[in-house]
């Protein structure tokens, strides 16, 4: 089947999805319909912002639908041959997955069956994995359970990978892999491989409270937490009952204390012209912070306005 005759519906929402959508367009697999999440209020002013996928689809004159949910939802057409999903962010019912002749394919940013579920990139960072990858799979009724079409590994040499940097890298690999396998998949030349369910591991939906810093953890874990949870939910602690976000930080393997006096995890101490926080193993040294309801500040600026943070225990 020639590319121009393959009718594709694309499901996606964030910038990661756009990497795949743009690759499809550039490779003569332009979808005839895009499904994305509804426009949402964003930021302090709660401005209604369209998803990145909607913006890109409009640029290329691709029709768009934005259902609140797909359960019991009827697509405007069932006359298409393939569904492609890349970080859509909502559950797609089985009856929609099974509409197209060639099924619905998903680009999943892990080496399935490892890290099934909604947060594989965050899990990779938090667990300090040395390798990850991307899987192109055919979706079935169970999340991330369907047979594998092809996967590709990525060695992690940079332990400072952030969620956005690693995510972009993985979806770029995934987009290229998708274009590579589509012709043989459509022609039936690829033998799908069943996942080894016994080896499956699972990730969770990330919630706001996951960003709460546990100062009893090592400093390097808190640094990975920052990398995994930026831009959302971001990491935070509490000072005087108010949420204090840590937007940038450095770490040190050294601790500062008085001989014979136990170190208290979560205790803020003076450090250069700012402050640092004791952990179970080393120091977290914030450089940019944001107190609830306030603008971002350097650690020095925050300390000047809140000198009582020194000696206090954050929680």
Write a brief structural summary.
By secondary structure, the chain is of the alpha/beta class. It has helices spanning 15-26, 52-59, 94-97, 120-126, 163-186, 219-228, 299-305; strands at residues 8-12, 33-35, 40-42, 47-49, 64-65, 82-86, 104-108, 131-138, 148-155, 235-239, 242-252, 268-271, 274-278, 283-291, 296-298. It is built from seven helices and 15 strands.
In words, what does this structure look like?
The protein is of the alpha/beta class. The protein has 2 domains: 3-199, 3-Layer(aba) Sandwich (Rossmann fold), CATH 3.40.50; 208-309, Methionyl-tRNA Fmet Formyltransferase, Chain A, domain 2. Helices cover 23% and strands 25% of the residues. It is built from 7 helices and 15 strands. Strands 5-2-1-6-7-8-9 form a 7-stranded mixed sheet. Strands 10, 11, 12, 13, 14 and 15 form a 6-stranded antiparallel sheet that branches. Strand 13 (274-278) and strand 14 form a beta hairpin. The model has no long low-confidence stretch (mean pLDDT 95). It comes from Candidatus Spechtbacteria bacterium RIFCSPLOWO2_12_FULL_38_22. Residues 206-306 form the Formyl transferase C-terminal domain. InterPro entries: Fmt (IPR005794), Formyl_trans_C (IPR005793), Formyl_transf_N (IPR002376), Formyl_transf_N_sf (IPR036477), Formyl_transferase-like_C_sf (IPR011034), GART_AS (IPR001555), Met-tRNA-FMT_C (IPR044135), Met-tRNA-FMT_N (IPR041711). This is Methionyl-tRNA formyltransferase. It catalyses: L-methionyl-tRNA(fMet) + (6R)-10-formyltetrahydrofolate = N-formyl-L-methionyl-tRNA(fMet) + (6S)-5,6,7,8-tetrahydrofolate + H(+).
């Amino acid at each position: 089947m020639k590319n121009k005759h393959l009718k594709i519906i694309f499901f996606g929402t964030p910038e990661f999805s756009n990497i795949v959508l743009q690759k499809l367009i550039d490779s003569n697999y332009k979808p005839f319909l895009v499904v994305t999440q509804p426009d949402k209020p964003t930021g302090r002013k709660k401005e209604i912002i369209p998803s990145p996928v909607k913006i890109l689809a409009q640029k290329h004159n691709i029709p768009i639908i934005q259902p609140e949910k797909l359960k019991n939802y009827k697509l405007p057409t069932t006359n298409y041959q393939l569904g492609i999903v890349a970080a859509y962010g909502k559950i797609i019912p089985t009856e929609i997955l099974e509409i197209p002749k060639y099924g619905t394919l998903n680009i999943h940013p892990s080496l399935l069956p490892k890290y099934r579920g909604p947060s594989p990139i965050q899990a990779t960072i938090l667990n300090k994995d040395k390798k990850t990858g991307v899987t192109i799979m055919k979706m079935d009724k169970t999340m991330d359970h369907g047979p594998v079409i092809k996967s590709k590994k990525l060695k992690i040499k940079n332990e400072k990978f952030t969620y956005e940097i690693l995510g972009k890298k993985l979806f770029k690999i995934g987009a290229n892999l998708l274009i590579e396998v589509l012709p043989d998949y459509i022609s039936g030349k690829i033998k799908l491989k069943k996942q080894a369910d016994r080896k499956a591991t699972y990730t969770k939906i990330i919630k706001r409270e996951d960003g709460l810093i546990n100062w009893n953890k090592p400093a390097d874990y808190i640094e990975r937490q920052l990398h995994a949870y930026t831009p959302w939910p971001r990491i935070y602690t509490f000072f005087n009952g108010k949420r204090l976000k840590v937007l940038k930080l450095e770490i040190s393997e050294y601790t500062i204390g008085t001989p014979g006096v136990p170190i208290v995890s979560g205790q803020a101490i003076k450090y250069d012209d700012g402050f640092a926080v004791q952990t179970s193993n080393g120091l977290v040294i914030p450089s940019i912070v944001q107190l609830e309801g306030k603008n971002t500040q350097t650690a020095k600026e925050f300390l000047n306005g809140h000198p009582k943070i020194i000696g206090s225990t954050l929680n």
